[in-house]
Amino acid sequence: MAVPKRKHSNSRTGKRRAHDHLKKRQVTYCPQCSTAVPTHVVCPKCGYYQGRTVVETTDQ
């Protein structure tokens, strides 16, 4: 089995892991009800998406 000849330095390990971080979800506001909604997702409050009502919601 192949085994590394030398230990990778902490700097080198950090450079490799630099792109592994999580990014924040991009949020927009629903034009219908002004609720914060992630992009490309149907609004959970009013069911509005791309200019039309996609899902009928029951208002309580």
Spell out the blueprint of helices and strands.
Layout: H1 10-17, E1 27-29, E2 36-38, E3 48-49, E4 52-53
Antiparallel strand pairs: 1-2, 3-4
Protein name: Large ribosomal subunit protein bL32
Keywords: Ribonucleoprotein, Ribosomal protein
Region (Disordered): 1-22
Major sheet size, sense and barrel closure: 2 strands, antiparallel
Structural class: alpha+beta
Radius of gyration: 23 Å
From the spread of the alpha carbons, the general shape counts as rod-shaped
Main sheet: strand order: 1-2
The span between the termini is 64 Å
Q: What is the count of helical runs?
A: 1
Average the pLDDT over all residues and give the rounded result: 89
Total strand count, please? 4
Helix percent band: 10-25%
Order of secondary-structure elements: HEEEE
GO molecular function, one term: structural constituent of ribosome
Organism: Rhodopirellula bahusiensis
Family: Belongs to the bacterial ribosomal protein bL32 family.
Protein name: Large ribosomal subunit protein bL32
